[in-house]
Amino acid sequence: MEHFYAQSEQRLGRIFRHGPEDFVMISAQPQCDVAWLESLDDAAVRRLDETETLSLLETRQYRWECGCSQERMLAVLGPMMRRDPAGLFGEEEVLRISCPRCGARHVVTREALEAYVSAA
Ligand SMILES: [Zn+2]
Questions:
Q1: Quick check: 21 pLDDT over 90?
Q2: Distance 104 CA to ligand 1 centre (A)
Q3: Which of 12, 13, 18, 113 could be cross-linked to 22 through a Cys-Cys bond (beta carbons 3.0 to 4.6 Å apart)?
Q4: 70-119 architecture in CATH?
Q5: Can you say how many angstroms the Cα of residue 53 is from the centroid of all Cα atoms in its chain?
Q6: pLDDT in tens, 43-97
């Protein structure tokens, strides 16, 4: 990632991992003390708010769209529906599932799944 950033932005960027989904990225801005940035280690970054005056340059929203769709959810559930519809739906008329890749929520009705299975 640091290598990619150096190539695409033409300046130094450092990435620190503080947890499974917690990353800190520090990128060089004009007049950056590059030696200081290069010298940062994980411990120094954890104390950065105590040793430096910090402010946000920008905030960015990231969204992972994996391409999942209602159709794809029907295709995943279809075999289970053929094998064991009662086990799949129980007393419910609706299944609420989250895409395992992106977390998008999908609602699949028994009616839709029955139609999918009989058409396939
Ligand atoms: Zn998805």
A1: no
A2: 5
A3: 18
A4: Alpha-Beta Complex (3.90)
A5: 30
A6: 999 999 999 998 887 888 877 789 999 999 999 999 999 999 999 999 999 999 9
DSSP calls for 66-110:
----HHHHHHHHHHHHHH-HHHHHTT-SEEEEE-TTT--EEEEEH
Compute, in angstroms, the gap from residue 23 CA to the centroid of ligand 1.
22
Q: What is the pLDDT of residue 91?
A: 92
**Sign of the CA dihedral running 11, 35, 38, 24:** negative
Taking alpha carbons only, the member of 85, 89, 74 closest to residue 120 is 74
Looking at residue 28, what is its pLDDT?
A: 94
Ligand 1 center to 51 CA (angstroms): 41
Token reading at 49: 């708010």
Phi-psi region of 114 (alpha: psi -120 to 50; beta: other; left: phi over 0): alpha
